[in-house]
Design goal:
The structure holds two protein chains of two kinds. Chain A is of the alpha/beta class. Chain A is built from 18 helices and 13 strands. By secondary structure, chain B is of the alpha/beta class. Chain B is 45% helix and 14% strand. Chain B has 23 helices and 16 strands. In chain B, the strands form four sheets. Chain B has a six-stranded mixed beta sheet with strand order 1-13-12-11-14-15, with helices on both faces. Classes of the chains: A alpha/beta, B alpha/beta. The interface between A and B is large, with 75 and 71 residues.
Chain lengths: 446, 502
């Protein structure tokens, strides 16, 4: 894999930190960086995440020290102190979090100590070094979460056996995060638990503050949020499990069974919930039995997505929808161990379909991998073409889909060709939305 | 002006003593600007803005058949993600085979901060060439390689020997300046050094007749410099206006093909629609190639459209023809606008965005019957002095110089209570949440310029004012992030003039 990235599908560490804070109710980012960092991030979060908008205090409203050459020469701590104080005067938030950019990290500004001075005066001000060169947006998510787990979440020696926390689903990077969290909460509540997700509907910063009383943490990712879960365990003595990100009946059944087993839920209850949800799912999917078969709606597929969505979505496509995902391109920057973990997810589909899985960050390589995965027609009279086809990816993959003559649905970041509000693709109900969107595209272009 | 031998242009604080923090009356601003004493004003509370690199990309991302290399950590230039689905369509309006926006990020990590990022940049250049075979590879340099001392120009010089595409380094490190409009100079600097031929191209083997024809054509051709916020229909309108005095247009730099810049020297005159966007480019074309320029105004509103045309006509000795055209256009326009005037009469408006556009819109909205109650500009420099200084009716109203800074905007809107906000992208949302009807100051698919632009703008205004329920409902249901006390303070109370440079 190359060192540069051809059209990366994520921001930097600070971008991930700002987006995580943007998704946290009434949390205010205070950017300690050059003036354009926040503006750049604001635009990427607004226009490339299904038109998420500027939010409560993001976009151009992001408080920012806007340090420039002189501060880089003489140090920017004084300017940061002034900015934190003035932000506390003007901006109404429940939690303030200083995130730092490359330049101030390189010159060694101690933003954490500056923030701590405010914290010691009883102001809810936190900080972490999030310089963009430290990694991509996912790293920013883990840095913000682990800082808050360490410093903001209250210590609770007595645990509440009926409360769990859930994370690993990275807000905004998962453009459907808000709707998805609703679905996951709802599923786990059916098993008898209250769920803190920190970013979900109706949650406040209090849910996060009190999260230490949880009995268990559930991480719905093999790679994201795991670091934070380990820190949570270390600081608050709450164990965690990794559960699969559930899309569709097959994946959601596994999710409920994994969670149920870890929490010691009565097996009968778990199987009842699964049966009930599945029955509802099929009461709707049944409607498509006509059109799916009359118009031959099976499709070859390519999935281009992150490490969370790619396995979950591909499994749904193969095992629930009965389609043929032949190529999966996972666009995140992962370590070898992480790649191995994610790759394993594709090996045991009940349908027996085994897609080719590649890890590649570069957008223009998607078509190259496809050319290797499926032979080209060398003017043969008879040719087993990759058709009819469907591409699940981001807005960046529309051209690749066009080159195949395939339909295309944006499901992974960046999404600039559709609006996303409370739509969810997880669980049983979310996969109904996904089917509506996918089959909707097919009937819409008839 | 001649900075072309330098690797990078000076920033605008130095070159133009431009300012991005001010609050006071329009009259006072012009007076201070003329004395050159706006530089050095700061804010004790500030919100994010754009940087040179972001704004450079606004132009560079439009260039056809080019690959952009963002040399920096993975987030730099990330805003391009929001354009990835949109930009191709705009390029196709100029060339149906356009490929849309292609970019590569050099993904500088901790290792590169220590060891340098030059090899990554080189790799990215070679990849761009091999993968896309573009006409140009445009490198935007970010803060990190600048501070660790990557020798961008050295890498480019070496790589250029191996690569057919023209490589254009643009030095636009964000931390260098608070005036993000410095980006225009950075981009033009790269274009002037690498895409505009260093000498006027002399083509031999032309018959005498061909040479004469060529000379005549050049003598009737003007370079009209567009901006990335303009629409294709805006350009058509400018073509129409100048066709009336028998001129040909060469439209640069946005959405141009890299080779189009070779023809930049084959024009009799450079015409800007926004002085603060173009002065660096036209001054250099004057200095190096002796091509005169007109920088004075923007063709928005009757007064300034007339002036824009007449200034150009004067250069070509076509004032009479131009005046006849103008009289006829204005007469037709007045009749067309008459039905809207009652709707606009006495409505109070606050305008925010780029200085030139804002000041011209003040004149336009006044002409349409609005009362102008406040202006906000992303930055301020000498180029708006004439237009702002001559509008007597607004001498006393507040002028807020602020790159974004929606907290000041919210305070002004809260206290001035305008009936309409005319604003820049990314600032409109905050006025909308205060329940104020909003019309965008620019829009890449709409017409704003020239006489038809006035009519279309008026038509859209009337439509938007007819039912502002969407924003009114927002006001009742969402909140801006500021404490109530903020609205009791002076909007400019965080602007710090203590280090003002005299």
């Amino acid at each position: 894999m190359s060192n540069f990235i051809d059209r990366p599908r994520y921001l930097c560490t600070m971008g991930g930190a700002v987006s995580t804070l943007k998704a946290l109710p009434r949390a205010i980012s205070i950017i300690h960086a050059a003036a354009g960092c926040g503006g750049n991030i604001g635009n990427a979060l607004n226009g490339a995440a299904g038109y998420l908008g500027s939010g409560y205090c993001a976009g151009l409203a992001l408080p920012s020290s806007n340090v420039y050459e002189r501060d880089i020469v003489f140090g920017g701590e004084e300017r940061l102190e002034e900015q934190i104080a003035s932000t506390l005067e003007i901006v109404d938030g429940d939690l303030y979090f200083v995130v730092t950019g490359c330049m101030v990290d390189i010159i060694g500004d101690d933003a954490v100590s500056v923030a701590r001075r405010f914290n010691q005066q009883g102001k809810p001000v936190f900080a972490a070094e999030t310089g963009g060169f430290k990694g991509n947006a996912y790293n920013g998510y883990d840095i913000v979460l682990s800082t808050l787990f360490r410093e903001f979440v209250e210590k609770k020696p007595v645990k509440n056996k009926k409360i769990v926390n859930l994370f690993g689903l990275v807000p905004i990077q998962d453009v459907f995060w808000k709707g998805n969290l609703n679905v996951l909460k709802d599923l786990i509540q059916k098993l008898g638990y209250k769920v803190n997700t920190f970013f979900g509907e109706g949650e406040t910063i209090e849910n996060l503050k009190q999260a230490g009383e949880a009995h268990f943490n559930i991480v719905v990712s093999d790679v994201y949020g795991v670091k934070s879960a380990k820190i949570f365990e270390e600081v608050h003595d709450v164990p965690y499990i990794v559960a699969n990100l559930p899309i569709g009946p097959a994946g959601t059944k596994e999710f409920l069974e994994t969670v149920g087993k870890a929490l010691g839920v009565d097996e009968l209850l778990v199987s009842n919930v699964i049966a009930e949800e599945k029955a509802r799912y099929y009461s709707y999917v049944e409607r498509l039995a006509d059109v799916y078969n009359d118009l031959d709606f099976q499709r070859y597929s390519v999935v281009v997505a992150d490490a969370n969505y790619a396995p979950a979505l591909t499994r749904f496509i193969a095992d629930d929808l009965g389609w043929l995902p032949e190529l999966v391109v996972i666009t995140d920057i992962l370590s070898e161990d992480e790649e191995k973990l994610v790759a394993e997810k594709f090996t045991a589909f009940s349908s027996g379909v085994t897609p080719k899985v590649v890890f590649d960050t570069d957008t223009s390589n998607v078509s190259k991998h496809f050319n290797k995965a499926w032979p080209r027609n060398n003017n043969n009279r008879y040719f087993n073409a990759f058709s009819p086809a469907f591409v699940f990816g981001s807005s960046l993959d529309r051209e690749f889909a066009d080159s195949l003559g395939a339909a295309h649905l944006s499901v992974s970041y960046p999404i600039s060709n559709r609006v996303v509000l409370d739509r969810a693709y997880l669980g049983y109900s979310g996969s109904l939305r996904l089917i509506e969107d996918v089959i909707g595209l097919l009937v819409g272009s008839r | 002006m001649d900075y072309i031998k330098e690797k990078a242009p000076p920033v605008r604080e130095e070159r133009l003593r431009a300012c991005n923090a001010y609050g006071g009356s329009c009259g006072n601003l012009v007076e201070k600007s003329k004395k050159g004493c706006l530089n050095g004003i700061k804010r004790k509370f500030s919100q994010t803005q754009g940087c040179q690199l972001n704004l450079s990309l606004a132009i560079i991302n439009t260039i056809r058949d080019a690959v952009v290399i963002v040399h920096g950590p993975v987030g730099c230039g990330g805003a391009s993600l929001a354009q990835a689905g949109v930009n191709k369509g705009f390029q196709k309006l100029r060339d149906s085979s356009a490929r849309g926006l292609l970019w590569v990020n050099t993904n500088m990590g901790e290792n590169e901060v220590v060891q340098g990022g030059e090899s990554r940049l080189r790799e990215a250049i070679l990849h761009a060439e091999k993968e896309f075979r573009p006409s140009a590879i445009i490198i935007v340099n970010s803060c990190v390689p600048a501070i660790i001392g990557d020798d961008i120009d050295g890498v480019v010089e070496q790589a250029q020997k191996e690569v057919k595409a023209k490589i254009v380094p643009v030095h636009c490190e964000g931390f260098k300046t608070k005036i993000m409009a410095s980006a225009y100079d950075a981009v033009y600097h790269g274009i002037l050094r690498n895409l505009v031929p260093h000498e006027k191209i002399v083509q031999d083997e032309k018959s005498e007749l061909e040479a004469l024809q060529e000379k005549y054509r050049t003598s009737r051709t003007v370079n009209v410099l567009n901006v990335s916020s303009m629409s294709r229909i805006d350009e058509y309108e400018l073509v129409r206006l100048l066709k009336a005095i028998d001129l040909e247009l060469n439209i640069l730099p946005c959405y141009a093909h890299p080779n189009d810049f070779q023809k930049a020297t084959e024009a009799a005159l450079n015409v800007s629609i926004c002085a603060t966007h173009d002065d660096y480019f036209v001054e250099h074309l004057k200095e190096k190639y002796d091509i005169p320029f007109i920088l004075r105004t923007i063709p928005i509103g009757v007064k300034y459209t007339n002036r824009w045309i007449l200034d150009i006509a004067k250069f070509f000795g076509a004032e009479e023809a131009a005046q006849r055209f103008i009289d006829q256009e204005v007469k037709q326009l007045e009749e067309a606008i008459a039905p809207f005037r009652d709707i606009f009469k006495g409505k109070r408006v606050l305008i925010g965005g780029g200085e030139i556009r804002v000041v011209a819109n003040a004149e336009l909205l006044h002409y349409l019957g609005f009362e102008i109650i406040g202006l906000r500009a992303y930055h301020y420099d000498q180029f708006a002095d004439e237009m702002l200084g001559e509008q007597d009716i607004i001498t006393q109203i507040p002028f807020n110089v602020a790159t974004g800074q929606p907290f000041e905007q919210a305070n002004l809107n809260h206290n001035l209570k305008p009936d309409l906000y005319v604003g820049h992208v990314n600032t409109n949302v905050w006025a909308a949440k205060q329940g104020i009807p909003v019309i965008p100051l620019f829009h890449q698919s709409q017409l704003f310029l020239g006489y038809t632009g006035i009519y279309e703008f008026a038509r859209r205004l009337a439509r938007i004012l007819r039912n502002p329920s969407f924003n009114r409902n927002l006001k009742d249901n969402v909140h801006l992030p500021y404490f109530e006390e903020w609205y009791d303070k002076d909007a400019f109370s965080y602007i710090d003039e203590s280090e003002l440079q005299a």
